[in-house]
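Q: Given only this backbone (231 positions), what sequence would you predict?
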């Protein structure tokens, strides 16, 4: 038997360095982006490689190579759902997390129709945001539970021919399988999803959304409440 010594560089058991998850941030509040960037960049396995204040700014930059996109729902001009549809049409589509103050059941339905992989409320702690990014990067989905009453209310706003598509999407059926089941092409399915998205999103509570959009942003509140509970 050979007594040859294997150096650390040659060892078959030496772990390989894993590249950080590349993250895109899109939010129209500069202070929020700064806070999110610090939260993400403080994690050794995550890295913010691109950011933008609007869908227009992001798409005007051209090339995009990220693993997970974190999008605010309420953006100037086109909203995060519209941007989700555009990102998912890319040849190398990123995983998409909608990060919004409006993370309720109605938005969860709209996020699924848009093709988002996750939805998280902005009241969540920073650690939870980073955990969701990791989940999405590993190929998991993270959408809040949707009550049957909300699903039915939004389904009733669609044409009968599109209600079946919504039901399949809500049950997690892959779009390619949906197209095959319904005997339609993928391009037709995507066009119908865009039409469905406009109908579903338009039924959100505009007054509630407006009131919350105009409320002061307080991203330290969850931490203060956690400290108060521990006191």
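A: Predicted residues:
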């Amino acid at each position: 038997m050979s007594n040859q010594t294997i150096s650390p560089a040659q060892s078959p058991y030496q772990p390989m360095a894993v590249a950080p998850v590349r993250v895109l941030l899109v939010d129209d509040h500069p202070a929020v982006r700064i806070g999110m960037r610090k939260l993400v960049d403080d994690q050794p396995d995550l890295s913010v490689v691109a950011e933008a204040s609007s869908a227009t700014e992001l798409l005007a930059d051209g090339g995009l190579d990220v693993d997970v996109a974190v999008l605010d729902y309420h953006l100037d001009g086109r909203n995060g759902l519209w941007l989700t549809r555009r990102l998912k049409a890319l040849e190398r589509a990123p995983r998409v997390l909608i990060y919004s103050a409006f993370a309720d059941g109605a938005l969860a339905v709209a996020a699924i129709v848009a093709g988002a992989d996750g939805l998280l409320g902005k009241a969540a702690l920073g650690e939870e945001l980073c955990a969701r990014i990791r989940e999405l990067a590993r190929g998991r989905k993270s959408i809040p539970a949707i009550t049957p009453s909300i699903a039915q209310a939004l389904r009733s706003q669609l044409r009968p021919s599109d209600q079946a598509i919504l039901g399949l999407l809500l049950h997690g059926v892959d779009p390619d399988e949906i197209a095959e089941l319904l005997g339609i092409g993928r391009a037709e399915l995507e066009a119908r999803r865009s039409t469905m998205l406009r109908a579903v999103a338009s039924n959100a509570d505009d007054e509630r959304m407006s009131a919350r959009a105009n409320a002061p942003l307080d991203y330290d509140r969850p931490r203060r409440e956690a400290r108060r509970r521990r006191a």
